[in-house]
Specification:
A: 301 residues; mainly alpha; MetI-like fold; B: alpha/beta; 4-stranded antiparallel beta sheet; 10 helices
């Protein structure tokens, strides 16, 4: 009985003759999902990212200790059943700090992607669609920003704005939109000469309508792929700023800052720097794998 | 004298300073069907794109229903003139369902009663309910071209521009689509401007035919004359012979 129901659901989703808008959309999403799950590495990436999100949401229930509670009698304890990842030089439980640190990491990644993706997408589509002077001006600005190494430019911004989490996010956002604009522009230049854009023009669609409803939806997949692959870089930049003391300020549990704090003891108390480093490594890897999986799933037309 | 549906005078269109269309004039009365035939690169499609406002570097005048066209096309023009493109695989947005494609012109022009219009347009081109929510990749070439025709018809235009509407289709589907277009044009009293490389198609569809070569009309005549395989210009005679099938001597003549 249950098998029969799931079979009919599948038929409904994969129907070649959908009966409603909702069914057409659900079917399209289901086909994408099937394409994505064929790639097990992508699924591993998704699991890692979902774990990160779960950790951030349920941090108070997962973390065994208060991430900020100092206990000098317990300082630099090695890995044990009490402290799964040991304790740092102020006696704070490293596992709890990593769990809470996932919130900071997600906040940075989320805010950067939310601001950078749409900005780069719109700029690229506008430049690519209009061409000519608009294109030249927008793309030269892009080139100028692109010419600076990301971390150096972010450093300069943070130095000017003052250290702190918000400024780190702003600095990363300002330095990471150009690649999105380039990707979107390249795609738009192919799309704008196609017959379906000509048909839309001939139906009287305004430039705004064509860009927002016809061009942007076709550029979104590559921007999503790009941003998923970029998230690893964002995490590394954020951790780099944290490591240099320009990102999240103590006592906020930020992974990069935690590594910096463990620098002194790296030979005697290896766990202080190692576990946050592992966390960064695994999460960056997760986002990369997810990005590859999403790219493969969306590219297959 | 009645107002011309379409009046083109001394049309010259350039692509990067090369004149692709080099002084073409013709006019169509309402309800006329006019065909332009010629080989690839003769500039026949460019005539249509210039009328549609898609080829912008042009001189000469184009009057539609007595109104002179400038560089920009307004909404009123779109309701008057619609176009069906050559390649049905490229003329439908790959991420939009048939429903979206047909709803778009209704939304742009703020027409009410969208549900009925979409249904009527699909019925007119012979696509059933089952096709409405499909994506282009779920349709065959002939079905896609029917969707493109439905999209052109939804604004109820008076003039239909057809840019090789069947050359990307299977031979077995071509006749179906051509007859559909002919019937729709007759039913709705539309003026039809058809461009094709196939003289047989044009002669079947249109009352008058112009033969185009290297950007100019070399011959213009009622299509009945072409049906009897007579032509004045030697190039037209070659085209006529070509539509009769492959002959070794003819191929040699074309190369030489």
């Amino acid at each position: 009985m249950r098998a029969a129901t799931s079979q009919s659901w599948r038929d409904w989703l994969l129907s070649e003759a959908p009966q409603s808008r909702a069914q057409a959309r659900a079917g399209q999403a289901y086909r994408r999902w099937r394409g994505f799950t064929e790639n097990w590495l992508g699924v591993v990436g998704l699991v890692i990212v979902l774990t990160l999100i779960g950790m951030a949401i349920f941090a108070p229930w997962i973390a065994p200790y208060d991430p900020l509670a100092q206990n000098l009698s317990q300082r630099l304890q090695p890995v044990s059943w009490q402290h799964w990842c040991g304790t740092d030089s102020l006696g704070r439980d490293i596992f709890s700090r990593i769990v809470y640190g996932s919130r900071v990491t997600l906040l940075i990644v989320g805010l950067v992607v939310v601001t950078v993706g749409p900005l780069g997408l719109i700029l690229g589509c506008v430049a690519g669609y209009y061409g000519g002077a608009v294109d030249r001006i927008l793309m030269r600005v892009t080139d100028i920003v692109l010419a600076f190494p990301k971390l150096i430019l972010a450093l300069a911004f943070v130095a000017a704005l003052g250290p702190g989490l918000e400024n780190a996010i702003i600095a990363i956002a300002i330095t990471s939109w150009p690649p999105y604009a380039r990707v979107a522009r390249t795609e738009t230049m192919v799309i704008r000469n196609s017959d379906y854009i000509a048909a839309a023009k001939l139906q009287g669609a305004s430039s705004l309508r064509i860009i927002m409803l016809h061009v942007v939806p076709l550029c979104v997949p590559s921007v999503i792929v790009r941003s998923t692959l970029d998230m690893a870089g964002v995490i590394l930049t954020a951790a780099g700023l944290g490591f240099l003391g320009l990102g999240a300020q103590p006592p906020t549990p930020e992974w990069g800052a935690m590594i910096a704090a463990g620098r002194e003891q790296i030979f005697d108390q290896w766990w202080v720097a190692t576990f946050p480093g592992l966390a960064i490594c695994i999460v960056a890897l997760g986002f990369n794998l997810l990005g590859d999986g999403v790219r493969d799933a969306l590219d297959a037309r | 004298m009645t107002e011309k549906a379409l009046d083109v005078r001394d049309l010259v269109v350039r692509y990067s300073s090369r004149a692709v269309v080099d002084g073409v004039s013709f006019s169509l009365d309402p309800g006329d069907s006019f065909g332009i035939v010629g080989e690839s690169g003769s500039g026949k499609s460019t005539v249509l794109r210039a009328i549609a406002g898609l080829a912008t570097d042009r001189s000469g005048t184009i009057d539609v229903a007595g109104k002179r066209l400038g560089a920009k096309r307004d909404l009123a023009f779109c309701r008057l003139v619609q176009m069906v493109f050559q390649d049905p695989f490229g003329s439908l947005h790959p991420k939009q369902t048939v429903d979206r494609a047909l709803a778009e012109p209704i939304a742009i022009h703020g027409l009410g009663d969208g549900e009925r219009r979409i249904q009527e347009a699909l019925d007119a081109v012979g696509l059933g309910r089952g096709f409405r929510f499909r994506y282009p990749h779920q349709l065959s070439g002939g079905q896609r071209q029917r969707v493109a025709i439905a999209r052109a018809l939804i604004l109820e235009p008076k003039i239909l521009l057809l840019d090789e509407p069947t050359s990307a289709l299977d031979v077995s589907i071509q006749a179906e689509v051509l007859n559909l277009l002919k019937r729709l044009a007759a039913e709705r009293g539309m003026t039809m401007l058809l461009v094709s490389h196939n003289l047989a198609v044009v002669a079947h569809m249109c009352e008058r035919v112009a033969v185009m070569q290297s950007g100019v009309f070399v011959e213009e005549a009622p299509s009945s004359r072409f049906r009897s395989l007579k032509a004045e210009h030697p190039y037209t005679q070659t085209l006529l012979d070509a539509s009769g099938g492959f002959r070794r001597g003819l191929a040699a003549g074309l190369v030489g």
